[in-house]
Give the backbone structure.
Amino acid sequence: MNFLEKRILKDGIVKSGNVLKVDSFLNHQMDITLIEEIAREFKRRFDKKPISKVLTIEASGIGIAAFVAKEFGVPMVFAKKSKSINVDGEMYVAEVVSFTHKNKNQIIVSKKFLQQDEHVLIIDDFLANGCALQGLISIVESAGAVVDGCGIVIEKGFQYGGRAIRNMGYHVESLAIVDAMDSETGSITFRDQKND
Ligand code: 5GP
């Protein structure tokens, strides 16, 4: 079991509706020592790639992606959520349905901050149905940039996002993959991964 899986077992709470709450250390209160360790692990896993930018989505990806960007010594950009359909031509836009909030958002990134031929590492806290990640991938590709990889802190392997995005040929690395969880007993089962 790796450092993150241990922490999820210790402090994660399984809620009904297939939601794993990790807000005591990851996406509300943040354990910065843990986030630094997560960032170093992403650096190790994507070290051979010529990453020139880290991309994430607001809000909970930002803190994590900032530390990852520092490891790679590159800028971090976060996609903003926008309810308005009136985005001007200076933005890349994608539509994302939120798993946790069950609503639809446009996500936008200014064309100034994503250039053609850039090598992008996408970072997010969770991968569930993959909607957020697909939106980010589509933004990178609209810019003519390259998705060099996707680094996910926690993947819910019993939802289809991870499989769908790997089947599209993207390199997805998830530091913990939850294959099963039960809100009645609180039990969490992780997938065995070769990287641990
Ligand atoms: P997806 O688009 O892959 O369905 O969902 C990804 C997004 O939903 C993540 O950015 C994350 O914010 C949120 N999310 C999905 N599942 C969970 C969960 O079990 N717990 C928490 N805290 N957030 C989740």
In short: Residues 19-22, 27, 60, 99-100, 124-133, 156, 161 surround guanosine-5'-monophosphate (CB under 6 Å). The longest strand covers residues 146-156. Strands lie at 13-15, 19-21, 53-57, 76-82, 91-97, 104-110, 119-127, 146-156, 172-181, 188-190.
